[in-house]
C-alpha cells in the first residue's frame, strides 16, 4: 500500500468548502484503486489566520510544508480583511517562489453541458504552460519621487534557464499530446525580453522536430482563443501572458470556476502545489453552493503528477459525465449543492 | 470652405487598397457637408521603401509630416521583407513616439450582420483608452551574457504624468458617454507599477464623482470581455493591457478587420495619427478583396477629432447599414469586393 502525504491549505472563502469536497473524491479514487491511500494534514493559513497572527502563515511555514509530497491549496484572498497583494505575496506567491514551482500548468477544454459563451466552441482542448518564477512578476523595481513627479518601475526579467525549462517542458508535453506548440510572444512591441524569448524558442525547436511550432503575439493569441480555440494544443507563455491566456481559457469553457492548475517544482527539492484558478469568492462562501469541479479537476492534476494517470483519467471522466448530466452548481446554471455534485462524482468513479 | 490637410501613408499590403477606399469615403463626406474639403498628400513609406532606401522613412520624415493636421495610416509590416520590430519601430512606433501621441483610442461595438464568435453578444459598445507612450513598451532595458547565462530585462516605466493624463482623458470620455469607467490593473501580481496605477486612479476618481468606477485585474477583465462585454463603457489601460484588450474587442465584434484606432497628441504640438487595428495581411493583398471597414471607421475617428462629429456619425451609420445589408468582404463572410463595399458606404452617405 503506497501512501501519499499531502499538505492541505483550504485558505479563504469557498476554499474551505471545495477542498473537503475534492479530498472526498481523492479518498474515493483511492478506494477504487485499492493499492494507494492519501494522508492529509490540514493547515489553517488564510486571511483569518492573518487577522489573528499578523501573517498569512507562520515564519517556518515553508519548513513545515517541505516534506509533504504535494501541497493541495483551495483559494487565497479576502480583500475585505487583508489587501490582496499582502495575502497573495504572504502565502500563494511565497509558496510558488519558495518551493521553486517554476511552472504553472493550466488546461482548458470544452465540456458538454457547460454554457460556453462561444457560439460554436467546437471540441477545444489545450494546455497552457506558464513560466511561473520570473518574467513580468519579478520583485525587482520600485518607485521614486512623490506627487506629480512620481515614477514606478517594474523590471520584467527573463533568464535563459527560466525561459528554456518552461519551453522544454512545453515541447515535451506537446510530444505526449498532439505535437503542436504555440509560443506566446510580443516581440513586435516589447523590445528587449520578447525578442530574446523568440530566439530561445527558435533555437530549441530544432531539438523537437516532431512538434509543429508557431509564435503568435499575445494580442492576436488572446483573440484567437476566442475565435478558434480548437487550433491549440500546448501554449507556452511568460508569467503574465500565461495568466491572461488561462483566464480566457476559463471564460470560453463557460466558467472560471472549473479550471485547475498545477505549480510544478522541477528540481525535486520541494513539493509541487495544486490549486484551482478561481478565487475565494467571499460573496457565496458558506452557502454550500460553491462549485467543487475546479478543485476536483485540480486533484486529478495532482494524481497525474504522482504518476497515477489512469486514476486521474477516471476523475476527469466522472466530472465530464456529471456536468453532461446537468448535476451542476448555480454558478454554471444548475441547482445542485457542492455536496450533491461531489456525491455524483464519487458515485460515478465507483460505478461499474 | 475649411480645408483639412492630411498626410496619407498607405504602408504595406492591404494598406494600399483600404486607404484609397477610405479617402473616397472622406471626399464623399465632404461633398455631403458642402463646407469642408480634404487635401491628401501621400507618402510611400513602407517595407518596400525600406528595401530601396534601407529605412522605413526618410530621416526627416517626422519633420515632413509635422505640419499636417493629421496622419492617416494604412498598415505597416511585411515580415517576408523586413523584420517586424524593424518595420514597426522604424515607422509606426516612431511616429507614435515622435509626435507624442500619448493615447491610443479604440472602440469596439456590436454590429448587426457581423458574425460574432459569441453566442449572445448583446449590444456591447465600449472604448478602450490605451496609454501609448510608456509603460511596458519602454525602450529601457537590455540583455547581458550569452548562451546559458543570458538574461534579458525589460523595464515597464509608469510616470505620474503619463498615467494621469490617460486616466483623465478616460474619465472625461466616460462623462460624455455612459459614465462608467473600468481601470485595467494587475496590482495583485505586478508589484511596483500596478499598485501605483491603482493609487493614481483612486486619487483621481474624486474629481469625477459622476463617473462610476471599478478596477479589474487584466486576467479577469480579458475574461469578462468574452463573457459580458455589454458591462463596459470606457476602459483605461496601460500600453500592453490596452493592446490585448483591444484585440479581444476586435475578436468579439466578429473581425479584427474592422476595428479602428486613433493615436492622440494632447499637447497640440504635433498631428494625431489614425490607423486601423488590423495588419497589412500580405496573404490577401492585391486581390481587391481587403475589408475597407476598419480604415473607413478610422476616417470617422479622424473626423470626430476634427470636431466634425456629425459627419463622423454619418459614416458610422453608413458602415452599420452596409454590414447589416450583407455587403461584406470575404473575411467577414460576404462576397463583395473592396470597391463594392466602398461604393455602398458612399452611396448610403449621400442618400436622402
Ligand atoms: C504592431 C505592434 C507594435 C502594435 C502594438 O502592440 O502597439 C499593434 O499590436 C497595435 O496594437 O497597434
Ligand atoms: C492572484 C494572482 C497573483 C495570480 C497570478 O496572477 O498569478 C492569479 O491571477 C493566478 O493566476 O493564479
UniProtKB/TrEMBL annotation, chains A, B:
Q: Does the keyword NAD apply?
A: yes
Source taxon at top rank = Bacteria
**Family, per the entry?**
Belongs to the isocitrate and isopropylmalate dehydrogenases family.
**Chain ranges of the Isopropylmalate dehydrogenase-like domain:** 5-345
What is catalyzed by this enzyme? (R)-malate + NAD(+) = pyruvate + CO2 + NADH
Supply the PROSITE patterns for this chain. Answer: IDH_IMDH (PS00470)
Which InterPro entries is this protein grouped with?
ICDH/IPMDH, IsoCit/isopropylmalate_DH_CS, IsoPropMal-DH-like_dom, TTC_DH
- Cofactor section: Mn(2+); Mg(2+)
Which gene specifies this protein's sequence? ycsA
Pfam families, per database record = Iso_dh
Give the record's keywords alphabetically.
Manganese, Metal-binding, NAD, Oxidoreductase
Gene3D superfamilies given in the database record:
Isopropylmalate Dehydrogenase
One GO molecular-function entry = magnesium ion binding
Q: What is its EC number?
A: 1.1.1.83
What protein am I looking at?
Answer: D-malate dehydrogenase (decarboxylating)
Amino acid at each position: 500500500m503506497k501512501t501519499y502525504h499531502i499538505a492541505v491549505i483550504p485558505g479563504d472563502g469557498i476554499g474551505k468548502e471545495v477542498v473537503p469536497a475534492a479530498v472526498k473524491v481523492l479518498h474515493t479514487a483511492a478506494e477504487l484503486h485499492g493499492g494507494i491511500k492519501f494522508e492529509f494534514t490540514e493547515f489553517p493559513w488564510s486571511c483569518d489566520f492573518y487577522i489573528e497572527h499578523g501573517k498569512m502563515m507562520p515564519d517556518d511555514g515553508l519548513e513545515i510544508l517541505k516534506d509533504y509530497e504535494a501541497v493541495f491549496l483551495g483559494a487565497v484572498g479576502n480583500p475585505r480583511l487583508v489587501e490582496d497583494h499582502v495575502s497573495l505575496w504572504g502565502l500563494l506567491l511565497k509558496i510558488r517562489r519558495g518551493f521553486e514551482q517554476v511552472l504553472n500548468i493550466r488546461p482548458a477544454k470544452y465540456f458538454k453541458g457547460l454554457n460556453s459563451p462561444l457560439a460554436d466552441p467546437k471540441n477545444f482542448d489545450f494546455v497552457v504552460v506558464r513560466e511561473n518564477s520570473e518574467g513580468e512578476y519579478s520583485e525587482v523595481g520600485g518607485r521614486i519621487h512623490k506627487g506629480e513627479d512620481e515614477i514606478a518601475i517594474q523590471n520584467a526579467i527573463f533568464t535563459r534557464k527560466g525561459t528554456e525549462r518552461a519551453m522544454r517542458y512545453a515541447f515535451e508535453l506537446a510530444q505526449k499530446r498532439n505535437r503542436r506548440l504555440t509560443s506566446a510572444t510580443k516581440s513586435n512591441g516589447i523590445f528587449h525580453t520578447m525578442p530574446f524569448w523568440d530566439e530561445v524558442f527558435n533555437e530549441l525547436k530544432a531539438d523537437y522536430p516532431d512538434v509543429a511550432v508557431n509564435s503568435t503575439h499575445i494580442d492576436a493569441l488572446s483573440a484567437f482563443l476566442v475565435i478558434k480555440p480548437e487550433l491549440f494544443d500546448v501554449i507556452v507563455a511568460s508569467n503574465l501572458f500565461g495568466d491572461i491566456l488561462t483566464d480566457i481559457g476559463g471564460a470560453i469553457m463557460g466558467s472560471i470556476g472549473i479550471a485547475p492548475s498545477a505549480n510544478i517544482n522541477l528540481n525535486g527539492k520541494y513539493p509541487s502545489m495544486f490549486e484551482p484558478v478561481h478565487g475565494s469568492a467571499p460573496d457565496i462562501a458558506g452557502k454550500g453552493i460553491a462549485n467543487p469541479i475546479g478543485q476536483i479537476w485540480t486533484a486529478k492534476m495532482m494524481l497525474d503528477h504522482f504518476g497515477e494517470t489512469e486514476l486521474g483519467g477516471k476523475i476527469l471522466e466522472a466530472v465530464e459525465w456529471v456536468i453532461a448530466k446537468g448535476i451542476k452548481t448555480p454558478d454554471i446554471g444548475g441547482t445542485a449543492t457542492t455536496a450533491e455534485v461531489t456525491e455524483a462524482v464519487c458515485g460515478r468513479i465507483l460505478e461499474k
